[in-house]
Amino acid sequence: MCGIVGYTGHREAYPIVIKGLKRLEYRGYDSTGVALLNGGLKVYKKKGRVADLEEFLVGKDLHSHIGIGHTRWATHGEPSDRNAHPHTSNSGKLTMIHNGIIENYAQIKKELLTKGYTFTSDTDTEVLLNFIEDIKENNECNLEEAVRVALKRITGAYCILLLDEADPETIIAARKGSPLVIGVGKGEHFLGSDASPMLEYTKEVVYINDYELAIVRPDELILKNLGNEKITPFVTKLDLKLAAIEKGGYEHFMLKEIFEQPSTILDCLRGRLDASAGMITMSGVQQNIEAFKTAGRIIIVACGTSWHAGLLAEYIIEELCRIPVEVEYASEFRYRNPVINKGDIIIAISQSGETADTLVAINRAKEQGAIIFGIVNVVGSSIARLSNGGAYTHAGPEIGVASTKAFTGQLAVLTMMALKIAKEKGTIADERYTQLLFELESVPEKVEALLKNADAIEAIAEKYKDASDALFLGRGYNFPIALEGALKLKEISYIHAEGYPAAEMKHGPIALVTATLPVVFIATNDTYHEKIISNIQEIKARKGKVIAIITEGDDVIPGLADDVFYVPAADEIIAPILSCVPLQLLSYYMGIARGVDVDKPRNLAKSVTVE
Ligand code: F6R
Which of 15, 5, 601, 494 is nearest to 253 (CA)? Predict the structure, then answer.
């Protein structure tokens, strides 16, 4: 949440900063601002999108070789010009941007108010900045020292970038809990919440760790801990192409990412799954195979869509590996006092690898001796680095705020893992193992085939676009997909939607059924097929409108449902990777039909780095 960009070097800073902000806009889009330094600090900020600020700045003198920029997801204070970052200190000499939350800001603000400080915004950021200024002036120390002292006194999460009018080449940066990447160029440095702002300039990056402070100049990157000890920057090579973060001819990132799934799932399976050889190669699982084989329990922690992937994994792992699985919301797990036994394995699932609650949850579990296995999309992210082992989903950058291709990547990884563990543990018959390997291998082409009928979903979306509510029902392996379908519809079309196990609807939600309520059944051929047909009939008996996602060749449900969408036949363990795709399309087309900015739905942001 909140995107941060910085540049110091020989080029003009503004074009780099503004372009970087556009790439980071998925992290927040309530307000935008930049600070430049050229014969004095210049701060420009505005409520609204990056494009609004850019338009506002046309014709202004933006010449500067150093700059910072911020795109905000509001925490303290409503989205407005005055709450937008960068904030400027009382003296007017310092300016700062911040991603995170300073939890003890109210107490510090009180202290500063008694000293005569004034505040122009409602933000915790302005408090931290003036706190730093106060320390700098009272202790007569340099900015770096003042930042260090201040950071030791605050609680919460932060990634901050500061400019000092008196030092026109230096950016001071620090992080705890919110991501920061520094790109190393020739006579220049780039800073970003992720590497996207620096892609065309350098492939050499340094991922900054918690409690590290960076002093960044054109020719110099000094890294220190909060104890003022120098740390050698660890330079990593970026493996990310510019095309991966562009729309590539699609109208929205979300649509591009939905249509990318045949290739992202293939990338996820590539080099790991060889059905003909009967092999799954996953080095992270292999390294921990004894722990998995003897695990008394697996606890999965995640949030949102990633949590839904975890729920499906519970069904699959219990079925194939016979290991008890619990699936926890990271935000709950971190504040409970969960029982973690020796031999328990924690699986953390996260697209961004930066979700604050998931990060803290695994930290807690690690302190208690649990083995942490990370299933993460963003390479080099905090969760990936904190895990004892793991597997990347290899879905490539996901920029649309609603998670789509990362979800199918998570399902593919989790299914492969379960199959590998089951094989090693001897809990799966050889024939079933081989069959599921071939089934998994055929997923990319099946997704490709069903995407060819996207128009059919568009027509369904057009028909139901004025609905105010919707129900999503599924049983067994399709229940987590019902939850995911409902979440997608809520966030992308603003239609209130609930996901339920189909049989559970009789225990309450059936009261909502009227002739105008669309009820989406995920009813592919599986063990529960006959049962779910009864559930469809129960809805039809009450005149509800039934949209059903069914398997090709199903000749019963088309006679009952108002609308159907066919997915290729697949084993019931594999089918959810297919049946979630039409639901992604449904939410996309519903959102478009209702005029929603689907890549940036209201109030949301990708990468939730605040709790
Ligand atoms: C929904 C969505 C969110 C994320 C959740 C966790 O479309 O994207 O629910 O799944 O915020 O994010 P990660 O996976 O980055 O930890």
Answer: 601
Omega into 168 within 30° of 0, i.e. cis?
no
My answer on whether 224 and 337 are in the same domain is no
Average pLDDT over residues 450-471: 97
Instruction: For residues 197 and 311, state if they share a domain.
Output: no
Q: For a substitution probing ligand 1, which of 351, 583, 588 has the most ligand atoms within 8 Å of its CB?
A: 351
Same domain, 412 and 472: no
Instruction: Rounding to the nearest 10 degrees, give the CA dihedral for residues 482, 483, 484, 490.
Output: 110
Residue 299 lies in a domain: yes
Give the CATH number for residue 593: 3.40.50.10490
Q: Is residue 123 part of a domain?
A: no
Mean per-residue pLDDT of the chain: 95
Task: Report yes or no on 134 lying in a domain.
Answer: no
Range 536-553 average pLDDT:
96
| Pair (410, 289) in one structural domain | yes
Q: pTM (2 decimals)? A: 0.88
Same domain assignment for residues 378 and 286: yes
For ligand 1, the distance from its centroid to the CA atom of residue 188, given in whole angstroms, is 34
* Ligand 1 binding residues, C-beta < 6 A: 303-306, 350-352, 355, 358, 402-403, 487, 491, 607-608
Nearest residue CA, atom 8 of ligand 1?
403
pLDDT, one tens digit per residue, over 24-38 is 998 888 899 999 999
Strand order in the sheet with 545-551: 496-501, 469-474, 518-522, 545-551, 563-567
Q: CA 557, 558, 563, 564 torsion: positive or negative?
A: positive
What is the pLDDT averaged over residues 61-71? Answer: 97
pLDDT at 355: 93
Last residue of a domain, one of 221, 243, 265: 243
Question: Ligand 1 centroid to 484 CA: how many Å?
Answer: 11
Mark whether 239 and 259 lie in a shared domain.
no
Q: Are residues 530 and 585 in the same domain?
A: yes
Is there a domain that residue 120 lies in?
no
Q: If 0-12 CB within 10 Å is exposed, 13-18 middle and 19+ buried, where does residue 555 land?
A: exposed
Q: What is the CATH number of the domain that holds 205?
A: 3.60.20.10
- Tallying the residues shown for the chain, one arrives at 611
Backbone angles phi, psi at 331, to 5 degrees: -65, -25
Out of 441, 472, 507, a domain closes at 441
290 and 323 both lie in a single domain: yes
Contacts of 219 (CB under 8 A, 6+ apart): 187
**Count of domains in the chain?**
3
Tokens encoding 422: 């089951």
- pLDDT of res. 239: 84
- Rounded CA separation 395/379 (Å): 10
- Provide the domain limits for residue 180: 3-99+158-243
Q: Contact, 183 vs 195, CB < 8 A? A: yes
**Residues 78, 82, 83, 89, Cα dihedral to 10°:** -160
* Interval between CA 308 and ligand 1 midpoint (Å): 10
Helix or strand or coil: residue 193?
A: coil
- Which residue among 483, 603, 608, 611 is best mutated to probe the pocket of ligand 1, counting the most ligand atoms within 8 A of its Cβ? 608
Where residue 426 falls (left for φ over 0; alpha for ψ -120 to 50; beta otherwise) is: left
Among the listed residues 282, 413, 397, the one whose alpha carbon sits nearest the alpha carbon of residue 351: 397
Contact 16, 9 (CB under 8 A): no
